[in-house]
Amino acid sequence: MHSSESRQPIPALHGITAECLLAAQPLPTWICSFDTWEILAANQAAAGHLGASLGSLAGQRLVDSAPGVGTAHALSAWADSGPVREPVWLLRRAGGGTVATRVALAALDPARVLVTALPVIPPSSPAGPRRTEEELLRDAKRESLELLAGGVAHDFNNLLTALLGNLSLAQMDSGLSAEVREWLDEAEKATGRARDLTQQLLTFAKGGEPVRRLVDLGSCLREAAQFARQGSRVRCEFSLATDLWPAEVDAGQVGQVVHNLVLNAVQAMARGGVVTVTARNVPRERAHQLGLGSHHFVVIEVRDEGPGIKPADMARIFQPYFTTKSKGSGLGLATSQTIARRHFGALRVESEPGRGAAFLLYLPAKPGARVERHGDAGALPALSGRVLFMDDEPAIRQMAPNLLHRLGFETEVASDGREAIERYARALETGRRFDVVILDLTVPAGVGGLEAMQGLHALDPKVKVLVSSGYAGDPVLLNFREHGFAGMVTKPYCLTELASVLGRVLEGDATKV
After folding, report:
1. What percent of the chain has pLDDT over 70?
2. What CA–CA distance (Å, rounded) separates 159 from 167?
3. What mean pLDDT is predicted for residues 358-370?
4. Quick one: 14 exposed, middle or buried, by C-beta within 10 A (0-12, 13-18, 19+)?
5. C-alpha to C-alpha distances, 129 to 104, 118, 124, 136, 332, nearest whole angstrom
6. Could you give the C-alpha distances from 475 to 94, 253, 302, 426, 481, in angstroms and in order?
7. What integer pLDDT is reported at residue 437 of this predicted model?
8. Which of 53, 135, 258, 327 ranks highest by number of CB atoms within 10 Å?
9. Residue 320: per-residue pLDDT
């Protein structure tokens, strides 16, 4: 319903007609006269709101009375008298009765006012849009999964620590045949892959701030890509620059991104095909041209031979829960983009319909840096001293003294922080001070590493404490020096990793492994 007045330009809106204004408004909207509240024009949503046809609204009154809002001047004064005003009015329905409606008012000129019906906001969410039951249920399920994933990953890392430690001990047996040693090497590699899987669980559960180390990306890319394509009809081909720069990254999280991108490519090629994984250096000048900033980068490209991405989907593929797959979660690419940003990098996509898609992961690089490589168990540093080892997992407490003995240490074990403090106090009293203390950060049923650290420091301000945890992204591990620790090691760890960090802590070089 549009009167002749609705086709006249509105001065306050720079020539826009009321008819255009109403057509562009999805909410129920009326144009009324100030003096009588007679409806001059309305849109279809407004007619439906009052239970009337659009043509029947002409000349009808929208409301019986609007106290204090009888003129444009009064409306301006009323609006200026406090916070944004959204009164609830009783609008007259066509068949009799009224409908309570929260409205917004705007003067169009001295004689006309724009009235818009606002959506209903439930009392529990006064400041935001109403969430559907499906959205609430989905978020509740995700929160439950996050708690479960975090707990499973923590416990699994404890078991992997015991497994990897015992494998390290077995590999030190000089009487092993070449065949048995090869079996143990393969078991250690499988444990490493399991460690990466638990890190993915922790990233999902916690959001996972990256624990950055200098990494040679070559082997990381190959393992993650081959693992993602297993059981499919897709083949992986690699083209990695021989002079690829090292990157300071969380290898587990980067592996997760590559896994997600390759898995995405595999799913795009249901009938099989080739996924090409390329890695090359991006000098500072080129990075600047690409809008990445003034830094050296490496780029990892994952390209498939699938149908490509529709132009309409390109802007949405990184949105959480958006998926074009019937069984997809819509979290893979969103998680991958988050990981890229947390590494101060970027994740971009290129695609043309019918010509496949390419995802490009940019990561800051360290040209000329040397990646520390852990030697084999036969080339361990010569260490000695007394170590107090605390962990709540019995299998780790049983393994640790044997592992540390191989490194040259005399060891005592404790099951929680309280026992560790007691043992350290007795050692001071007897003149047999511990050279290093290793504390498990999380002890569900007792005193954990952070609280124990404070107690030990009160006994001995010069105590050297190394913190250990399966939660690699825990803020305490990421900022261990700020909490008084001399070093850190993430579970699961092998013999050479533990030897490396212990050696540096004893030398006074607080370095994380």
Report:
1. 76
2. 12
3. 91
4. exposed
5. 17, 11, 11, 13, 27
6. 62, 16, 32, 31, 11
7. 96
8. 258
9. 65
Q: Are strands 247-249 and 98-109 parallel, antiparallel or unpaired?
A: unpaired
Cα-Cα-Cα-Cα dihedral of 91, 94, 96, 100, to 10°?
A: -20
CA dihedral in degrees (457, 460, 463, 467; nearest 10)? -30
Question: In the predicted model, what is the mean pLDDT of the chain?
Answer: 79
Cα separation of 263 and 234, whole Å? 10
Average pLDDT score over residue span 52-60: 85
409 has a pLDDT exceeding 90: yes
Runs of H (alpha helix) within 282-408? 284-289, 311-314, 332-342, 394-407
- Domains, the chain, ranges and CATH? 4-117 (3.30.450), 136-200+374-513 (3.40.50.2300), 217-370 (3.30.565.10)
User: Using CA atoms, how far apart are residues 186 and 200, in angstroms rounded to an integer?
Assistant: 21
Check: CB of residue 340 under 8 Å from CB of residue 362.
Answer: yes
> Tokens 């607080």 — which residue?
510
Amino acid at 301: E
Q: Is residue 411 scored above 90 in pLDDT?
A: yes
Q: Where are the beta strands (DSSP E) in 344-396?
A: 346-351, 357-364, 385-390
3-state DSSP assignment of residue 479: coil
